[in-house]
Amino acid sequence: MAKAMEALLAVVLLLFCGEWQVLRGEFDYRDALSKSILFLEAQRSGKLPQSQRVKWRGDSGLTDGKLQNVDLAGGYYDAGDNVKYGLPMAFTITTLAWGTLDYGKELKAAGEIQNARDAIRWGTDYFLKASATPNELWVQVGDPQADHNCWERPEDMDTPRSLYKIDKDTPGSEIAAETAAALAASSIVFRFTNPRYSHLLLQRSQSLFSFADRYKGTYGGECPFYCSVSGYNDELLWAASWLYRATKSSYYSNYIIQHDDVKAYVNEFNWDLKYAGIQVLLTDLYFQGEAQFSAYRSNAERFVCSLLPGSPIRSVKTTPGGLLYVRDGANTQYVTSAAFLMARYSDLLSAKKRTLSCGNTLFKPNDVMGFAKLQIDYLLGRNPLGISYMVGYGSKYPRQPHHRGASVVSIHQQPRKIKCIEGFMNWFHKDSSNPNTLIGAIVGGPDKYDRFVDLRTKSSMLEPTTYINSPLVGVLAKLYRMTCKTNRQC
Prior knowledge:
By secondary structure, this protein is mostly helical. It has helices spanning 2-12, 29-42, 86-102, 104-109, 113-130, 144-148, 173-189, 195-214, 233-247, 250-259, 275-287, 296-305, 332-352, 365-380, 404-407, 420-428, 459-462, 466-487, and strands at residues 84-85, 136-141, 163-167, 356-358, 361-363. The strands form 2 sheets. A 3-stranded antiparallel beta sheet has the order 1-2-3. The longest helix is centred in the C-terminal third of the chain and has 22 residues, at 466-487. 54% of the residues are buried.
C-alpha cells in the first residue's frame, strides 16, 4: 500500500521544476461539463433546431439519403470532417447515455441533464431513421476519400453523399450491435421522461441485436478510417449487456453467459474495443446481486490495475507529465474513456466498502478516482505546458483545431459558397486562429513526451471527435459534484 501511494504521489505532487506551473485550487468542472456537451452541438448534421446554441453553424446534409429515397438527415459528424460514420457515432451515444444514466443526479445538479438528453436524442432519432427497414442499417453517409480531399464547411459541402448500408447479404455485426447498445442504453435514459419514445428505442434495439447476431459478419466499408480490428464478439456482448440492463430478460443474461469471453483481458476502451466497458458494466450488476456475472469482476479489476501507477501489473505508460498514453492519433480518446471507467469502478468499490487488489498492492476507491481526476485535470490545464486541451476552457487552449466548420468563416458571416480548393488555400493552410471557436472540443492532445504544436495541419494533435467527449461528460459530472460538496457550493 505504501508503495502504491508513493507512486501516485510521485505523479500528483506539485513540486516539479521547469515549465510546469502548478495550479492551486480546483478546476471549474461545471463549466467544463457544460462545454463538453456544447461541443456535440457543433457536430450536428441536418436541420438545426431553434434551441441550437452553437450559432456559427448552419443547416447541412438536408438531402442525405436522397440517392436511395431514404431520409438520413441528422446525426453527427464524427470529427473534423463531414462524413457520418455509424460505428463511432453509435459508441458516442452509448457512452453518453451511460454517463447520463449513472451520473444523472450530478448532471441535474449542474443544470445539464436536459442538454445531455438532447444530445443523446439527436443521435437516436438518426438511428431510428437509419434502421427503419428490418435487417437493414444505413451505416455511413459521405464519400470519405472525396471528403478528405476537400476543405469545406458542412453547409457548403458538395462532395458525393454516398450511402453505405449493411443487410443480411452484406452483414456488419459490429455496427448493428453497437447501434443496438446505443438504443438500449438510451431507452433507459428516456424511460420516465418519455415512455413511448423509450419503448420505441428498446424495440428497435432488440431488432438490431437479432439482426447482428443472426447475420454475423464484419463490415469493412468504413475502412481505412474505422476498421474493426477486434471483431464483432465484443459488440454483441456489449449490446446484450445493455439489453439485459434495460429489460432484465433472462434471454440476454443467458446470451452473455453462453457467449462470454471472460479471458478477454484488455487495457483500453474505445469505439472498436468494448470488453473493458462490458466488464465494468457487468461487475456493477454483480455487485447489485446478479451472481451470474461474477466472472467479469476479475478482468474489470485487471483493466483498472493496468492503468494505475504503483500497480505491479500496470501496462499502460504515461507521458512524463502523467497523461495515459496508448498510441498516436487522438490519444485523448483513450484517456477520457479510461477515466470514465475508473470513475465508475471507484463508485462500485465505495458502495461496497472494498479495496482494489493489484497483485499484492491494495488501492482504495479514492486512489482509483484520484488517478481518473489526474487525467481530467491534465486535459484541463494541469500539465507541463499549462495548456487546456479543451477548446474555450481557460485562457490558454488550442486555437487551430483541425475542423472544417470551425476553421472556415461562418456561413452567417459569409454566405457565399467556399469551395474545396479555396478552403484549403485560404483557411486550412492559414497559420492563424480559427474564426469560429469550437467550444468544448477536446483535441487529440500531446505526444508521448507532452509536446504539442498548435497547427491545424497536425491532425493527430488537433482533431477533436465526438467519442473523445462522450465519456468525459460522466466523469466531469462526478468531479463537479465531488468538488461542490467539498466546497459546499452545490
